[in-house]
Design goal:
The complex is a heterodimer of chains A (154) and B (252). Chain A is an alpha+beta fold. Chain A contains five helices and six strands; from the N terminus they run αααββββββαα. In chain A, a hairpin with a 5-residue loop joins strand 5 and strand 6. The termini of chain A are far apart. Chain B has a single domain, classed as Four Helix Bundle (Hemerythrin (Met), subunit A), CATH 1.20.120. In chain B, helix 3 packs antiparallel against helix 4. The longest helix of chain B has 33 residues. Classes of the chains: A alpha+beta (154), B mainly alpha (252).
């Protein structure tokens, strides 16, 4: 074996070793690397009961209730299967709205209500101009999108 | 191909080759940068949800991609330097490190500026953001280690090992948004099937991506040329570059 070949093999082995070590470490820390729990995971009891954790999901449609005269807000966070009621007091991010992804930090109380002390908006990976979004929504409702797109909407 | 690569490994040939390429690269880079910035910041439509804030993407996304590409290149140059002892590869690895660190820094800062209005926070410790921060530390560690030795060849060997070990972080950064729940959203452009971004936004983004790739290449070659003549300052071919000196003249 030439010295070059030897170095090539050594470096190859080094990389395989480091990759294996990293994989084992990441698998071992799988739980700790989860940034948030979904409502289904919380319902299945996977979230820590007595410690603060993060809850992530979509704000359920028609669930946001604001208490007039204060910053209190109540809403449901859902992942399609389960939903968890959340209460929060404070200013919400610009992107917060029904149907939008959020990540809330807080703790479950005895009644199963999640008391959040921080609410962050999680946006999806879709980018499009407003007109396209409008056209897509119309086509979802069963209307002919091509007619709409050429219809000269304001 | 192999013969050409072999010739590129010779310092004088590399120096002349890079010198001929540079004006073209800089011109193309500036043109793309101008077109991309104007198209992205002025012509492209606002986003349906994020309005004009999404335009940070035209800086953030290419920088983040290039921070990863620069690292892979740095590790590959280091591997070539360690295995075949190619001096030009050592110089290239040393020269790309500050560029990659800058791209990482820009990606982190622009992402933070984007996160505040959209997510509601400057920083969270989710898997994507944390692993990108580790990338910045890897670059800084490489630069520190490469500067810690007086002998440039020993420095290249020590820092090269760090670069190769650290390359394990690159797939972690890339796949972090798929492996774990993160606040950072999933991939947009590389998503299998159709990218979930309107064409009027994707095209200026791609122009910006090309512009920054050209910048990386041009800046890398420029820096590597300087580094190369600094290292080879006592060699015959560098002395021959100096005007008014005959072959074989000694530097005072």
């Amino acid at each position: 074996m030439t010295r070059r070949r030897k170095r090539l093999v050594l470096i190859g082995l080094l990389m395989v070793g480091v990759a294996a070590a990293a994989m084992l470490a990441l698998t071992a820390f799988q739980q700790n690397l989860l940034y948030f729990f979904s409502p289904s995971q919380v319902a299945a009891g996977e979230a820590p009961p007595d410690y603060p954790f993060r809850l992530g999901g979509l704000v359920a449609a028609q669930s946001v209730e604001r208490v007039s005269g204060s910053l209190d807000v109540r809403f449901q966070v859902t992942d399609g299967n389960r939903s968890i009621p959340v209460t929060y007091t404070g200013v919400l991010p610009d992107l917060f709205r029904e149907g939008q992804g959020v990540v809330a930090h807080g703790q479950l109380d005895a009644d199963g209500v999640f008391r959040a002390d921080q609410v962050l908006a999680k946006h999806d990976e879709e980018y499009m101009p407003p007109e396209v979004k409008k056209a897509l929504q119309v086509s979802d409702n069963g209307t002919d999108p091509s007619r709409h797109a050429s219809g000269g909407e304001p | 191909m192999w013969i050409w690569l072999h010739r590129l490994g010779s310092p004088p040939y590399f120096y002349r080759f890079a010198g001929r390429l540079l004006p073209w690269l800089w011109t193309a880079c500036l043109v793309c940068l101008g077109v991309g910035l104007y198209w992205g910041l002025v012509v492209a439509p606002p986003d349906y949800q994020q309005g004009d804030s999404y335009r940070i993407m035209f800086i953030h996304v290419p920088s983040a991609w290039l921070s990863l590409l620069s690292y892979v290149l740095m590790a590959s140059f280091s591997a070539a330097a360690l295995i075949w002892r190619v001096k030009v590869a050592e110089v290239l690895a040393r020269s790309i490190a500050p560029l990659g660190a800058s791209f990482t820094f820009i990606a982190l800062v622009s992402g933070s500026l984007w996160g505040k209005p959209m997510w509601g926070t400057w920083w969270v410790w989710d898997a994507r953001l944390t692993s990108e921060l580790i990338l910045l530390f890897l670059y800084l560690g490489f630069i520190a280690l490469a500067s810690a030795f007086d002998d440039p060849r020993r420095a290249a060997r020590a820092a090269g090992l760090l670069a190769i070990v650290g390359v394990v972080n690159v797939p972690i950064i890339h796949f972090s948004v798929q492996w774990w729940n993160t606040l950072h959203q999933g991939p947009t452009v590389s998503k299998l099937g159709s990218p979930s971004i309107a064409l009027s936004m994707l095209l200026p983004l791609l122009v910006m991506v090309v512009a920054l790739h050209l910048y990386l290449l041009a800046a890398l070659l420029q820096k590597a040329r300087c580094e190369l003549i600094a290292r080879e300052r006592s060699s015959r071919w560098v002395n021959d570059l100096l005007p008014g000196r005959g072959v074989g003249d000694e530097l005072a």
